[in-house]
Design a protein that fits this description.
heterodimer, A: alpha/beta, elongated, B: alpha/beta, Rossmann fold, 12 helices, 16% strand, globular
């Protein structure tokens, strides 16, 4: 079995929370390895059972560990650790030990490094870049963090570059405070200056401004390195060898989410592969006349069927849409995962055969 | 005591849980339930509006709109709250304009950890304290999915630790105290009876305990494949078995109030919300 329409060295699985991204990423990893490719699955937040199945406990945090998969190709898995990746990034770009320590010991950094908006997402791509540089794998499958919008992930490098290039940074890097902790700009203005200082204190707080100024200053030696790296990461996400698989939940109300995300991916210059509608209730013949639970099950089958069809109608003819049925149990054994991966690729081949042209194209808006 | 009775005096009810478990549906049902006796604002924080579908009204577009008897709806842009705050504090119009247009301000609001969460909570608090033009008795907040960033509930405490001084530190401390006070702020955790959502619900319960020193008011288990009379189709039976297993795991660690909502053969909309509100009662 080939990877067909998704045969790329880097597959990024994206989608909203709770749609089954992690499971699908693991399933694709198993098929890839069993077909002989050396494969890495980078996941973010696998369930306890999936962790057990892959054999990746805490040991896999921030490093690659071998999955005892018995596959022809090697299968490794790793868990992302945003804080550890961030620390490493600081160590790499700090010009000397002293500036490195100043950051790692900084009050703001310690409190917030793991929680900064978008940092988690940025660290996911950063980590991906580290792994790509190893050139140890034929294929890397990246499961993305479960962010609310699922878009933060894609915008992370752009935001980083935007911030580093913006006037915000230049402004922050100016020497705002004198040695006595007074604002330099206002001290010359005497009474008026004190008024402005007072206003700033009321609105934001001078103490906070002093701490923030210090925070930005200690990062200054790292900015150039950071910016170059963010550009490389951005290029990797848009490279020819990178393909996005978009996973969505069933039901008509999820259609808008899927379309929105597909459009944003393409607008951002990414290559969108198949759109997967996951956990679709099967249709039941004659279910409408049945009683009780059977009738409800039939109703769910019809609802999901309507949803898949409505989405199909809204996509371009050569967009690949793959629906995967709701399984009796979430696959958590290696066998069940591989079966899911093969079922997915089988349906993908069928969808590609039906599509007017084999491959989805980039840059076009849905 | 029923859920409605327990929440009867809460001024803010935060509805939280993992993505995809039906937080928005439960928020709407809860809003409708509480609006039977009080004037309630349903607050949504998502650029793509969804709550209005549940209530069968037009999208709010950021404004406060009527969504039923004693029920109001607003889709909140956190940045708009911060902008409003700048306008109030600075007062001098040209200065306000310059601040709002500056990239410094925009990066600060977008990237400042916990800032958006603070803004949302502050807006809710001001609404119930009558500091805004439209006053309500209670706010039901459909909180963003917990994910792994700063959770809305933990944000005030986290920010108040990082920023000790000045108005932002003060605001963070006020909000932290508000969220931690069970007499003022209700916390409802929504989950489905599946592994990951239950895991996240348990983590949220632990977060309430550890960071806020309090328990949530209720855990709502949504979307259950309910037990069937007679023979169930295999898919149903298997899904029900998973539900039971995960419910057992939840109950083992959470002995507080819990309400279970079954899957219903109703599309999203007022009919579904009315049916669920009745069950919540």
């Amino acid at each position: 079995m080939s990877f067909g329409a998704i045969d790329r060295p880097l597959i990024v699985v994206v989608g909203g929370g709770g749609v089954g991204k992690t499971t699908l990423a693991a399933a694709l990893g198993l098929v890839s390895a069993s077909e002989g490719g050396d494969t890495l699955v980078m996941t973010f937040d696998p369930s306890a059972r999936l962790k057990d199945a892959l054999g990746v406990g805490e040991a896999a945090r921030d490093r690659e560990v071998a999955v005892q998969s018995g596959t022809r190709g090697r299968l490794d898995a790793s868990l992302l650790d945003a804080r550890a990746t961030f620390d490493r990034l600081v160590q790499r770009y700090a010009p000397d030990d002293a500036s490195c320590r100043r950051i790692l010991d900084n009050h703001f950094y310690q409190q917030l490094a793991g929680n900064l908006a978008g940092i988690l997402e940025y660290m996911a791509v950063e980590r991906l870049f580290e792994v790509a540089a190893l050139q140890r794998y034929d294929r890397v499958i990246l499961d993305t963090p479960p962010t609310r919008q699922a878009l933060d992930f894609l915008q992370a490098p752009e935001r980083m570059i935007g911030f580093l290039e913006s006037g915000a940074l230049k402004l922050a890097l100016r020497r705002w405070f004198d040695d006595h902790g007074r604002l330099r700009a206002t001290s010359r203005l005497r009474a008026l200056g004190r008024g402005i200082e007072g206003l700033l204190d009321r609105v934001v707080g001078l103490q906070l401004l002093r701490e923030m100024a210090e925070f930005f200053q200690i990062w200054a030696p790292l900015y150039e390195g950071f910016k170059a790296r963010a550009r490389e990461v951005q290029a990797l996400l848009r490279a020819r060898g990178t393909l996005f698989v978009l996973v969505a939940g069933p039901g008509e109300e999820r259609i808008a989410d899927a379309l929105f995300f597909a459009r944003r991916l393409r607008e951002a210059g990414h290559r969108l592969g198949p759109i997967v509608v996951n956990r679709v209730h099967p249709r039941i013949a004659g279910g409408a006349d049945a009683a009780g639970g059977m009738r409800l099950l039939a109703w769910l089958g019809e609802r999901d069927h309507r949803g898949v069809h409505a989405l199909r109608d809204l996509l371009a003819p050569d967009d690949l849409l793959v629906d995967l049925p709701l399984l009796e149990r979430e696959p958590t054994s290696l066998e069940a995962l591989e079966a899911l991966g093969r079922a997915f690729l089988g349906r993908l081949d069928a969808a590609a055969a039906r599509a007017p042209r084999g491959m989805p194209r980039r840059g076009r808006k849905t | 005591m029923t859920l409605a009775e327990r929440l009867a005096r809460r001024r803010l009810v935060v509805v939280t849980g993992k993505g995809g478990v039906g937080k928005t549906t439960v928020s709407a049902a809860l809003g409708r339930l509480l609006a039977q006796r009080r004037r309630v604002l349903l607050l949504e924080v998502d650029p793509r509006e969804n709550l209005h579908h549940m209530l069968g009204v037009e999208p709010s577009g950021g404004e406060i709109v009527e969504a039923g008897p004693r029920l109001l709806l607003q889709n909140l842009r956190p940045v708009a709250v911060v902008e409003e705050l700048v306008r109030e504090r600075l007062k001098i119009r040209p200065l306000v304009k310059r601040v709002l247009a500056s990239p410094v301000f925009q990066h600060f609001v977008e990237g400042g950890p916990g800032l958006k969460e603070l803004a949302v909570l502050m807006h809710a608090l001001r609404m119930v304290q009558g500091e805004t033009q439209v006053a309500v008795d209670a706010v039901v907040l459909d909180a963003p999915a917990t994910g792994h960033g700063v959770s809305l509930l933990a944000a005030p405490a986290l920010v108040s630790q990082a920023i000790e001084h000045g108005p932002i530190g003060h605001l963070a401390r006020t909000l932290a105290a508000f969220v931690a006070d069970p007499a003022q702020c209700g916390i409802v955790i929504v989950t489905s009876a599946e592994e990951m959502p239950v895991q996240e619900a348990l983590e949220l319960i632990a977060l309430c305990d550890g960071r806020l020193g309090r328990a949530p008011d209720e855990v709502v288990v949504n979307g259950l494949y309910r037990p069937l009379d007679g023979a169930a189709p295999p898919l149903w039976a298997a899904r029900r078995a998973t539900n039971e297993q995960e419910l057992a795991r939840l109950v083992e660690r959470w002995t507080g109030p819990r309400v279970e909502l079954p899957l219903l053969p109703l599309d999203r909309g007022p009919e579904l919300i009315a049916a669920l509100a009745q069950r919540l009662q």
